[in-house]
Structure formats: structure tokens, C-alpha cells
Specification:
With 171 residues, the chain is mainly α. 33% of the residues lie in helices and 2% in strands. Helix 2 packs across helix 3.
Amino acid sequence: MTVLTWSDDRVEQLKKLWEAGLSASQIAAELGNVTRNAVIGKVHRLGLSGRAKSPATAAPRQRKPARPAQPMMRVTRPVARGNTALAQVFEVEAEPDPVAFDNVVPMNQRLSLLELNEATCHWPVGDPSSPDFFFCGGKALAGLPYCAQHSRVAYQPAADRRRQPSKSSPR
């Protein structure tokens, strides 16, 4: 690899070519045995910032006239948010579970923690520190820990939760 030093006449030639508006690649080709990056580095070290603009770049660019605004046609599609596997379950189970409607659970359906199994609803009702605390105990949906009614409450799509503020949070 040949190390080329910048002689005074090469620096003067660089300055003239730079002021003429040539690119670093063009200057490197004109000087010979020097890379584009070497030209850029030398230009910065010399502090050559202002250069003559070529007539093509000096003139402002003509803009195209703006197209008239056309209304966008929106296609409505069914929105599936949240766990879509559960959406299929709700379509099949359209009617609410009569046993666990409005958080009223019959006495014979109520279960303690030790009585729960995979087929029973694990929805907690009441304060866990209270002696009146129990679990729903209704028939759980296949693969889910809750009955149909409590699954609707537990697995709400995020959009529905944002639209309906909870009654407990003051706004």
C-alpha cells in the first residue's frame, strides 16, 4: 500500500476542484491515487465548507401541484381483539348460565377451596378473609376455570374495558 502525502500543489488542486463544485468522488478520480474518503477528510481538515453551487442545485425545485383530496373509502371488518379462542366459546354459549346470573349463586352450588376441581367454576365471591367467602362452583367451560357467566366477565376484549369505566373507580 502506497502512502501518499498531500503536497502543496495537490492541496491547491483539491481546493480549486472543491470550489468548482466537484464531488469528492470526482476529485479523487481527478487527483488519482486517492480515495473519496481521503478527499473528504482533507476537505474537513482544511476547513473548506463553502463551495460553489452548481446551477442545477442552486435553482429551487419545482413542486407538483397537490392532488385534490378524495374521501377515503373505509371497509368495515369484524374486529377480533383479545383472546380469539374464547370468542368461539361465547358464540356457542349464547344464553347466560341461569345458575350464576348476576353474582347470585345458589347455596347448594357454593364450594370451598378444597372442593374445587377442573369441572367447577373457580370464580371467587366475597372477601377471602370473611367466613362467608366461597367459589361459584358452577359448571366450568371446557378448558377454562370459569362458568359461561364468569368467563364473560373475566375475558373482556381490551376495547370494551376502555369504553366502560369500572363502577369502583371514581372519574
